[in-house]
Amino acid sequence: MNIRYPFLNLATVNEPYIGEIRDAVARVIDSGRYIGSNENKEFEKELATMIGTSNAIGVGNGLDALRLIIRGYIELGRLHRGDEVIVPANSFVASALAVTECGLDVRFADVDPDTANIDWARLPLDSRTRAVMPVHLYGRVCPVPDTLPDGMIVIEDNAQAIGASLNGRMTGAIGHAAGMSFYPTKNVGALGDAGAVTTCDDELAHTVRMLGNYGADTPYHNIYAGINSRLDPIQAAILRAKLPHMAAENATRRRNAEVYLTEIDNPLIITPRVPDSPENHVWHQFVVRIADGRRDAFRRHMAAHGVETAVHYPTPIHRQPCYAATCRHTSLPVAEQLADQVVSLPVSRCTSPADAAEIAGIANLFRG
Ligand SMILES: *Cc1c(COP(=O)(O)O)cnc(C)c1O
């Protein structure tokens, strides 16, 4: 089938910046510093300033960012084996892997059907809950209520929402610490793997930095049995080129989302709830729901008209084979229903507003 409206093409995404990206890569090649370069320091400064935290630490990828935060809390004695961390069941699996990989227990929460984010009203708190990981899924801010029990640690999974904000506060600066991903498909994407931790907790930042560099405070002096998860300076330099364009990229996504929200007018398609304020959403994905088991028919209809779609995510995390055994008795009806209903429409810069209007028109022709 002829694809007229691709879901995402990374060459197209990077095309406007290719000159700056080549210059950035050349700078690193010429510098002769291929680990721990000045590019990393400058990138971390620029990222921290943008997010509004006193620290940003570049790491290998988004999963490492989250696991280094949790490992950091363990080393600081603020989290312990047997503690539970609440993670929404509707997310990418990395959110949960970060918890279980560190030897803590994950407890899955159901989500709100309108926002797809954690449903705070039904948080499965118990006596072992020490931390919660709100995921700003699809690019929508997941606001953290101030009614959480005292001492609860809030770790944001900010892989999908760079640039979103709530009352002037950026995601990545809402909780106690946040993990971000610069995986190539994210709103700000590297040309390979890359991630970062942002936090205003200087002690945690120092610990995370050591843990990601073999647990060393100074060369050949290892405080912790750490790991190697350093940000590649080539990726740091590329990200320095791309970060200043983040707002424009997010504006492009908002413009496409706006077209979908006004043009899609088909009772079989449930469009996402409009954010309270445009700043609350950076539309990493534009996700609609198709009820009554007709999602696959909808995807076939779109494909027949040349529209590529995707599903984020087809299986809730508690039903993944790696967690299914421990979650046999876990029932999270909203997350389970979303997994059967969600479809993502193209929303990146690969889609023009005219394309989005065409795609909406095609969606409106779906009859089930
Ligand atoms: C992409 C993503 C991650 C992991 O990022 P990587 O850089 O691929 O390790 C974690 N959580 C969510 C919600 C993501 O979308």
Structure characterization notes:
There is one protein chain. The strands form 4 sheets. Strands 1-9-8-5-4-2-3 form a 7-stranded mixed β-sheet. It has a 3-stranded antiparallel β-sheet with strand order 12-13-14. It has 12 helices and 14 strands. It has 368 residues and is an alpha/beta fold. Helix 5 (94-101) links the parallel strand 2 and strand 3. Bound molecules: pyridoxal-5'-phosphate. The site of pyridoxal-5'-phosphate has 15 residues, from helix 4 and helix 5. Pyridoxal-5'-phosphate is lined by residues 61-63, 91-92, 94-95, 135, 157, 159-160, 181, 183, 193, 195.
Chain-wise SSE layout:
Blueprint: H1 10-14, H2 18-31, H3 38-51, E1 55-59, H4 62-75, E2 84-88, H5 94-101, E3 105-109, E4 129-132, E5 153-157, E6 165-166, E7 169-170, E8 177-181, E9 195-199, H6 202-211, E10 216-218, E11 221-222, H7 233-242, H8 246-263, E12 269-270, E13 286-290, H9 295-304, H10 321-324, H11 333-341, E14 342-345, H12 353-364
Parallel strand pairs: 2-3, 2-4, 4-5, 5-8
Antiparallel strand pairs: 1-9, 6-7, 8-9, 10-11, 12-13, 13-14
The protein binds pyridoxal-5'-phosphate (PLP).
Radius of gyration, in angstroms, nearest whole number = 21 Å
Structural class, please? alpha/beta
Helicity, in percent?
25-40%
Strand content: 5-15%
Q: What's the mean pLDDT score?
A: 97
- How many distinct beta strands? 14
Task: Quote the distance from N terminus to C terminus.
Answer: 20 Å
- Which H/E pattern describes the elements? HHHEHEHEEEEEEEHEEHHEEHHHEH
How many helical elements? Answer: 12
Give the strand order of the largest sheet, numbering strands 1, 2, ... along the chain.
1-9-8-5-4-2-3
* Parts with pLDDT < 50 across at least 5 consecutive residues: none
> Which overall shape is indicated by the principal axes computed on the Cα atoms?
globular
Bound small molecules, deduplicated: pyridoxal-5'-phosphate
Q: The biggest beta sheet, please?
A: 7 strands, mixed
